[in-house]
Specification:
By secondary structure, the protein is of the alpha+beta class. It contains four helices and four strands.
Amino acid sequence: MRVQFDLRPAEYLEWERKRHSFSFVRLVAVLLLLAFLVSSGYYVVMAFIETQDLQSRIEVLEGEIADLESSKTALLAEIARLKEREEQFKKTLEIMQSEPPTLEVLNALEAHLERGMGVNSVRFVPSAREDKTVFYVVTVDATAAAEEQIIALTDGLSSSGLFSAVTMPSTKKDEKTGRVSFTLTLIARPFGQGSSEGGRP
């Protein structure tokens, strides 16, 4: 029979015994360590997934922002173009308003002159209101076979909507021919402010 002597220190032997013996505290510590490692790994994986998802969403939003910037640029260009056209229309309208409404007045006279009436002259004199709106005073020298024709002409021009006022300051009848000479004074409305035929002056 062989006898072996353990020459290791007693403290080491005690530590060795405790290391190999069951310890509840050690078990709990190991379980807590495992739980910590598992939870840490889980949160690291979830954080990675969330980071990738956020990155994808950021890329999508950046694409939408780029599209919006392009749309904004296009809209600004369109607004600038429309403003330029608006300025052109304003200038054109100012030019048209500053021109006498010759054709409109002559067409109205022709439409309401009855058979036997004649026009000797039509004069346009520009004037301006307080708001600098240009209008024209139209003086018409004409003749008629009867005074009833003059009244009908005056009523027709008044209802045409082209004039804000229609006055007949003077008439003169030729005793030899029976014809009546008269002078009409018409206040032509500014361009674009005339109402349709049959409207109120």
